[in-house]
């Protein structure tokens, strides 16, 4: 394998791994469920994309022809990650999980849970 | 160089998986556990693809695709169950 | 009509070729076969037919979202590593006026994937999108940026 390909693969693998680790670290570190939602949906999506790009380049080299299969997984994860995050947020709201003390606009939570309109019509 | 990188990356992903496992066991709420499982399957996909690179094989792609699909469906099913179960009560 | 759902036909064609990872003649014939028969079989089951009015705008939108995802990821990663005490999470109600369900889904997904926000819920009358922000500096600014950056193009693409 030529050196430049190896370097590209290594770099994208490392970027992916760092972001995956940050995503999981955020899952441990952040204080409440609504904040924890952010780290897997964003950091992990980029992390997995990095690993997939590395895999794509490697398989293309291995087969000798252009391999784009891995794009399918990236596409699939990009579509499903927000949906999963949304459903988990709904579940947390449904069970009235307490957010962090300093969360702004906490009074909105009941409204969101019941899918009503906000009381004061848009402060902006 | 690639071999060393693969070992480092595998270590990173394993640490990530352990962190997820901690959140899964610690909770404190069911939503947290679902979120931990959701992150875990994403990390598992990364680990499998990494093994595919290590073994120079294309076979692991299918496994990764299957995990991606089943993972999403199970997250959605768990959330739906939790959401609906309470409405019936 | 040969292609009742042209976008779905294109998607099926591409995904079939991607799944088999080949562009040999046999697979192209099969992909064309699926791209014609599957939409033909299922087109009767749908009630809404959202049309992409401006495909070029759609492509530009996808590219813009890609770029935003990249910056969003780095931004969120920095927020996660940084000091937690400085984070100011908050819920925001964003007024939306998109008619089609597909448009709302797209907007909610984009909002989830881009900087510091996760869409949590849509109100029953589909006029409010509730968003949780990881770091809420300026509420009005966030609402304005969502409306201008993501809602306007979606409205133009679907023409509603």
TrEMBL record, chain A:
<dbReference type="GO" id="GO:0015385">
    <property type="term" value="F:sodium:proton antiporter activity"/>
</dbReference>
<feature type="transmembrane region" description="Helical">
    <location>
        <begin position="71"/>
        <end position="89"/>
    </location>
</feature>
<dbReference type="Pfam" id="PF03334">
    <property type="entry name" value="PhaG_MnhG_YufB"/>
</dbReference>
<keyword id="KW-0812">Transmembrane</keyword>
<keyword id="KW-1133">Transmembrane helix</keyword>
<keyword id="KW-0472">Membrane</keyword>
<feature type="transmembrane region" description="Helical">
    <location>
        <begin position="6"/>
        <end position="28"/>
    </location>
</feature>
<protein>
    <submittedName>
        <fullName>Sodium:proton antiporter</fullName>
    </submittedName>
</protein>
<dbReference type="InterPro" id="IPR005133">
    <property type="entry name" value="PhaG_MnhG_YufB"/>
</dbReference>
<feature type="region of interest" description="Disordered">
    <location>
        <begin position="104"/>
        <end position="124"/>
    </location>
</feature>
<feature type="compositionally biased region" description="Basic and acidic residues">
    <location>
        <begin position="110"/>
        <end position="124"/>
    </location>
</feature>
Automatic annotation (TrEMBL), chain B:
<keyword id="KW-0472">Membrane</keyword>
<keyword id="KW-1003">Cell membrane</keyword>
<keyword id="KW-0812">Transmembrane</keyword>
<keyword id="KW-0813">Transport</keyword>
<feature type="transmembrane region" description="Helical">
    <location>
        <begin position="59"/>
        <end position="83"/>
    </location>
</feature>
<dbReference type="GO" id="GO:0015385">
    <property type="term" value="F:sodium:proton antiporter activity"/>
</dbReference>
<feature type="transmembrane region" description="Helical">
    <location>
        <begin position="6"/>
        <end position="22"/>
    </location>
</feature>
<comment type="similarity">
    <text>Belongs to the CPA3 antiporters (TC 2.A.63) subunit F family.</text>
</comment>
<dbReference type="InterPro" id="IPR007208">
    <property type="entry name" value="MrpF/PhaF-like"/>
</dbReference>
<keyword id="KW-0406">Ion transport</keyword>
<feature type="transmembrane region" description="Helical">
    <location>
        <begin position="34"/>
        <end position="53"/>
    </location>
</feature>
<keyword id="KW-0050">Antiport</keyword>
<keyword id="KW-1133">Transmembrane helix</keyword>
<dbReference type="Pfam" id="PF04066">
    <property type="entry name" value="MrpF_PhaF"/>
</dbReference>
<dbReference type="GO" id="GO:0005886">
    <property type="term" value="C:plasma membrane"/>
</dbReference>
<protein>
    <submittedName>
        <fullName>Cation:proton antiporter</fullName>
    </submittedName>
</protein>
């Amino acid at each position: 394998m030529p050196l430049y390909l190896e370097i590209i693969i290594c770099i994208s693998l490392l970027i992916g791994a760092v972001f995956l680790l940050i995503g999981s670290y955020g899952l441990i570190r952040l204080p409440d469920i609504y904040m924890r939602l952010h780290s897997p949906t964003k950091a992990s999506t980029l992390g997995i994309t990095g690993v997939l790009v590395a895999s794509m380049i490697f398989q293309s080299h291995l087969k000798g022809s252009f391999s784009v299969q891995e794009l399918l997984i990236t596409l699939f994860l990009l579509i499903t990650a927000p949906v999963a995050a949304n459903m988990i947020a709904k579940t947390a709201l449904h069970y009235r999980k307490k957010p962090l003390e300093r969360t702004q606009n906490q009074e909105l939570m009941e409204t969101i849970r019941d899918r009503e309109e906000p009381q004061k019509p848009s402060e902006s | 160089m690639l071999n060393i990188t693969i070992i480092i990356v595998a270590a990173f992903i394993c640490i990530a998986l352990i962190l997820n496992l901690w959140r899964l066991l610690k909770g404190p709420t069911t939503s947290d556990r679902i979120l931990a499982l959701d992150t875990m399957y994403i990390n598992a996909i990364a680990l499998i693809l990494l093994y595919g690179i290590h073994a120079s094989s294309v076979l692991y792609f299918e496994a990764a695709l299957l995990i991606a699909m089943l993972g999403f469906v199970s997250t959605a099913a768990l959330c739906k169950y939790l959401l609906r179960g309470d409405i019936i009560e | 009509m040969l292609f009742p759902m042209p976008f779905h036909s294109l998607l099926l064609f591409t995904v079939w070729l991607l799944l088999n990872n080949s562009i040999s003649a046999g697979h192209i014939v099969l992909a064309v076969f699926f791209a014609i028969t599957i939409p033909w079989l299922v087109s009767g089951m749908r009630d809404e037919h959202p049309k992409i009015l401006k495909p070029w705008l759609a492509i530009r939108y996808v590219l813009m979202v890609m770029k935003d995802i990249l910056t969003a990821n780095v931004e969120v990663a920095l927020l996660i590593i940084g000091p937690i005490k400085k984070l100011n999470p908050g819920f925001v109600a964003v007024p939306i006026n998109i008619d089609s369900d597909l448009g709302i889904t797209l907007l909610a997904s984009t909002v989830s994937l881009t900087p510091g926000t996760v869409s949590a819920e849509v109100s029953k009358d589909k006029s409010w999108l509730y968003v949780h922000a990881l770091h809420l500096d300026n509420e009005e600014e966030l609402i304005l940026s969502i409306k201008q950056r993501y809602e306007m193009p979606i409205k133009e693409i679907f023409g509603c």
